[in-house]
Amino acid sequence: MESMAVAGHSIHTCFHIKSKNPRVNLEKQVFGVPVLHHGVSCIGKKLKGKVGAGVQAVQVGLEESERVRNLRSLERTLELDAVSERELREKGFLGLRKTKLVCTIGPACSSLEDLEKLVLGGMNVARLNMCHNTREWHRDVIRKIKKLNEEKGFSVSVMIDTEGSQIHVVDHGAPSSLKVQEDSIWLFTNEKFDGSVPFTVQAKYEGFSEGIKVGDELVIDGGMARFEVIEKLRSDLRCKCTDPGLFLPRAKFSFWRDGKLVERNYELPTLSTKDWSDIEFGISEGVNFIAMSFVNDAESVRHLKNYLSTKSATSIRVLAKIESLESLQKLEEIIEASDGIMVARVDLGVEIPLEQIPTVQEEITKVCRQLNKPVIVASQFLESMIEYPTPTRAEYADALMLAGESAIGLFGQKALSVLQMTSSRMESSSREENRQGSLLPRQLGVSLPDRIAEQICNSAVELANNLAVDAIFVYTKHGHMASLLSRNRPNPPIFAFTNDESTRMSLNLQWGVIPLLVDLSDDMESNISSTIHLIKSKGLVKEGDSVLVVSDVTPSRATPMAFQSIQVKTIA
């Protein structure tokens, strides 16, 4: 049943189980696992389906051959992000940063020149908060980013963040943060006014003070500043600052009494009329991600995804923001329904004690990895860098997001530089201590082909780490196998080759994945040979480099089988 041959640099291991179905041909030698339309194949387990599996290690020369000449005649192109290419040349495979960086775009960084500096500094995704600025301003920023992508060879994705319910928002009206002094007296009111009024804060929801008593504590942004309610004037509150700090525009607030959150149920829809208008705008401008604010259940996520599937010509991924106690109580079902998660630390800090945030963040990240969903940790990594150049702390996650630090901060580019540096150092230390692969992935697939894909990716990462290969190449249409590889946190970077632009842009949030746009054919070996040839022609691989190749080709009329395989190739 098993045979192994060793010759030079070649190792070949195959398992063959004959099919009981005479129409199924499993005798043809292929590099990997043939999976039929109905799915009858797997690795490493006894299953009811019929199995054919293979792992092959070969030494590959890139000299002129009939195959390469044929591939050249196809005039294939390879689109690799210019920043990733530069980083690869400078640092090599293992020096590539794997944590993705998201920057919120605001007045401090919206010029074409500033946007380019952020991209060159490592920005993978540009986030636009629909709470701020005009529709025309957002459109201008999106088109600047697309212009940079087209003219400079960048590959930056665009995310819009819905405004959501404003019941927990207060605004002092100033364009940037204010320093709140201890014992200063402030008026919190629901009366509307333009601009800013000294020591006056506008609440966005009329009933913001309902049920609040004198002596209650008003907390800004999870502890950036604290006030005591000293007088209630109808619906207005007069408050004294008890803990000074920075007061950001459009800050989140909460009320606490006797050390406990004052909970109030407003029963407002997740998406407002304005949010739906902003979503239509995002569709028309071709954004790649929509982050939903104040998600409290999975149904609202499913509703938006269904809507986008009927309205958008390209795939737009939906991220759910976890920022309330209610969302934590329904965490797993929300993660399962979404395409990714954003951990809104500051907003969570409004509703749970700050000292619990790290533990909650770790648990959310763990569940996201188990369910194979990218997770962004957002807000106030380097909050002091809004006005001061020295960071107070830095943190690690699958993707990190700068909010005020880049949008309104005076040192946005330095904040991004610090975040890039610290994330790279954390990746290096995690790799040395072998922490990244410590999570045991949960089996997600129900159908046999999906379970095969999971087992292949789990095994591929273990093989890549044990063999110390330089890179992993994956060929994928929708990015599924790339994400399965990513959740296992391999030491080498993952180069994901796809012929779908929306897949390429969505992979910008996947840890360790470098997406490349390339023409792909139904001939898997041609795809592998051509991409290695193109990568080598750019001087990005050299003789002796080893590459682990994982393929995932969708069945077509030309190829009635999907080939899911693992190969190890040494560049000769």
From TrEMBL:
Keywords: ATP-binding, Glycolysis, Kinase, Magnesium, Metal-binding, Nucleotide-binding, Pyruvate, Transferase. It comes from the Eukaryota. It holds the Pfam family PK. This is Pyruvate kinase. It catalyses: pyruvate + ATP = phosphoenolpyruvate + ADP + H(+). Belongs to the pyruvate kinase family. Residues 454-554 form the Pyruvate kinase C-terminal domain. Its cofactor is K(+). InterPro entries: Pyr_Knase, Pyrv/PenolPyrv_kinase-like_dom, Pyrv_kinase-like_dom_sf, Pyrv_Knase-like_insert_dom_sf, Pyrv_Knase_AS, Pyrv_Knase_brl, Pyrv_Knase_C, Pyrv_Knase_C_sf. PROSITE patterns: PYRUVATE_KINASE (PS00110).
